[in-house]
Amino acid sequence: xxxxxxxxxxxxxxxxxxxxxxxxxxxxxxxxxxxxxxxxxxxxxxxxxxxxxxxxxxxxxxxxxxxxxxxxxxxxxxxxxxxxxxxxxxxxxxxxxxxxxxxxxxxxxxxxxxxxxxxxxxxxxxxxxxxxxxxxxxxxxxxxxxxxxxxxxxxxxxxxxxxxxxxxxxxxxxxxxx
Length: 178
Description:
Blueprint: E1 2-4, E2 7-9, H1 11-39, H2 50-67, H3 72-76, H4 78-102, H5 110-135, H6 152-160, E3 165-168, E4 171-174
Antiparallel strand pairs: 1-2, 3-4
Helix pairs in contact: 1-2, 1-5, 2-4, 4-5
């Protein structure tokens, strides 16, 4: 477990996010090849389309974080994760349309985007189901690590004045007064 912006994040959640990010990259690339095969043209080199693939993955990954795909409820309940995933992909598409308005060459074509959305939903649901079932709920549980022997209450008492000081409802009180 490591600390990120005053939150303790289990390693399993970080690995899940990285695997899902790779799945988003793969779904955008797969959508490009699917559309190229249907339209009858060569997909070309990846160097020609790395920016649209990356913008699809980044925008949807940010949307997944924004809607709480890595929260405790979404990690424990597949139904909750499905609802959050559909909201995240929808929010990601809105963000992609904004990017497409500002930078037209930085996003996928509309047909590619639809295919990428459908592939991403399918891949992310399969990945989430497989990993949460195989790793178990304990792997994704957020635990408060043992920070030290002194509790926050003792540290506050020592900082204010030591013995005779007590903390009540967020205020410091001396000599038994409320």
